[in-house]
Amino acid sequence: MALEIGEEHTRFVSWAEKNGITINGVAPAKFPGRGMGIVATRDIKAGETLVHVHSKAIISHASPQIFKMPSGRMWSKDLSVHGRLAAYLALRCNDENFEYKAWRDTWPSIREFRQILPIYWSDEAQDLLPHAAKEILTKQQRNIEADFCAVSATCISESEASFPKIDKDLFIYTWMIVNTRCFYWDYLDLPKVSPRLPRMRKDLTADDRYAMCPFMDYFNHTGDEGCVTETNRDGYYVVANQDYQAGTELYASYGTHTNDTLLAEYGFILEDNPHDAITLDHLILPDLTFKQYELLRMDKFLGNYTLSRGSPSPVTCHRTQAALRYLTIPYRRYAAFEAGLDEGTPEEQQIVDRHLVGLLEQYDRVFKTLLEDVEALEDKMGEQRATLKKRWVQIRCLVNQAKWALRDKL
What we know:
- The chain is of the alpha+beta class and 410 residues long.
- It has two domains: 59-212, no CATH class; 277-409, no CATH class.
- Helices cover 44% and strands 13% of the residues.
- It contains 15 helices and 14 strands.
- The protein has helices spanning 7-18, 64-67, 81-92, 101-104, 110-116, 123-126, 131-157, 168-181, 259-266, 281-284, 290-298, 318-328, 331-338, 346-375, 382-409; strands at 21-23, 26-31, 35-40, 49-54, 59-60, 182-184, 210-212, 220-221, 228-232, 235-239, 249-252, 277-279, 306-308, 315-316.
- The strands form four sheets. Strands 1-4-10-9 form a four-stranded antiparallel beta sheet. A four-stranded mixed beta sheet has the order 2-3-11-8, with no helix packed on it.
- The radius of gyration is 24 Å and the shape is globular.
């Protein structure tokens, strides 16, 4: 059941409709224990455009206020597009004249982020993150540090009047605001070659295509099919994927993310995520000899070993199968599998499956201790403790389902 939204959200909707954002048949709503979302304000038909964020309302690297520093000089080449957006927000978001102030007033506070985002958690809680989530967290920390160093260097080179020093805590907060609210944008409103593109269009990477779209961040994520997002040179659109009755919550998909990704990047996990998977790197890599490690690296089969939800039982990826074959059967048989010449015999598959069962049993033995360590977290970490416990129970369930399915085959 949706609750009444606060005045800040009402003000933002009014601001949005005056600043290039068309809202049709939907509105923000507050849900007990889950924060904000989007509901249908009337019956909606499949194919209806629900939201249009005009390209002029999108904040991207090509936006005039982002493209250059406040002094008019170019940003350091060492500062990522993500970092430039974060620096812009850090400089302006507390300004009463900030052009996006109405939107800024609806964002989560640093206090709220400290509860849900692992980057703010204590070292003790971070150490209890699943392996995949911990890897994402490490990457976030590394990227934030690199961006902040680039921003700090810019501050030193600029006069205090034209470029005030940015507080690191504020920068981390705005960096995570960008991280939790960015969409992919291909600068469709610009020519193929433009001085305001971070590089030539053919050389754009995924990290160049960050953009922030006011209002679209109200849509909560679903692991299943949700409303469709579309883009053209006029901006972003959200289109109904099916008929909806008035009062129904509407979702959009952030992508086929695992729960570890959702936890590290957005601060939540899904109860039932059809795209969930766990990494097995920490089980497989320690068993490799140096020679095996180097050969798998040269064959581009080193790491990213995953166990995913499947139907009717969990499945391992092709990379995992290749590595397990190299560990358990003669090299020539691994080479045939790696080259795609031979999928292996049933007898070989049994050997591989038996080895995998042993690895999963090894993993299962650590869960009791892990859950005890999670329960031992201080009471002030209650929300973090609950999230970690839920996630480790999900992982244990996936591991056991895979183990039992493999045993039935042996």
